[in-house]
Design goal:
By secondary structure, the chain is an alpha+beta fold. Helices cover 37% and strands 25% of the residues. The strands form three sheets. It has a five-stranded antiparallel sheet with strand order 1-2-9-4-7. It is elongated, with a radius of gyration of 19 Å.
Length: 235
Amino acid sequence: MKDGEIGEAWKGPTQCRNCGIRDLVLFSDLRLMDFSLIHLPIDELRFKPGESLYHAGDQKPYLFTIREGTVKLVQYLPDGSHRIVRLLRQGAVAGMEALLSEPYAHTATALQPVLVCRIPRAVIDRLSGETPRLHTQLMRRWHQSVRQADDWLTELSTGSARLRLARLLLQMTEATDSDVCHLPIREDVGAMLAITMETASRTVAEFRRAGLLTDVGDHLVRCDREALEAVVAEG
């Protein structure tokens, strides 16, 4: 975890029980008595944009819950190129391969400033053995990750560059429940949509000229959702 700074090691289960986003995270279904089963520290880690939680091929006994910010999952291809295969936001779980003692399949990198909880696999193993509530939540997370991967492939890898970008922006505004969202750099946009950086830059510029998105801050844009939905409807 050399790329991240440990803000503080959590002092046992009390912090988890009182977590401000507990209803969104992996432990959301746990009852008060379940937290007494947590005997290993769950560390709080901060990452700057561009820093990695873990790399593809790493084999470490940790899962990560995203508390703040957005993490991109990157797949590196044999030809040296890469694809962003998914974005993980608040409440999502990264590194579930660790549950099977498998190497991480992707590189998880902070797209914006990120705060995560690093959960030892041993904590999950014990809770899964002692309470069915966590097992149910884990199955729900596995299903969610498969569905998101399918949706990503279907929506962001097919159609014209305009259509893909419109779908991406709608996804990002839906995730924030706001017309304002974080606009990734053109390299990341290209890697998400399977288009070249030049095409990504040209399409974003076209959307700006047409008023579909307006800059409101550092990498923040306000999206005209109605106009973006019209682009999607046109196909």
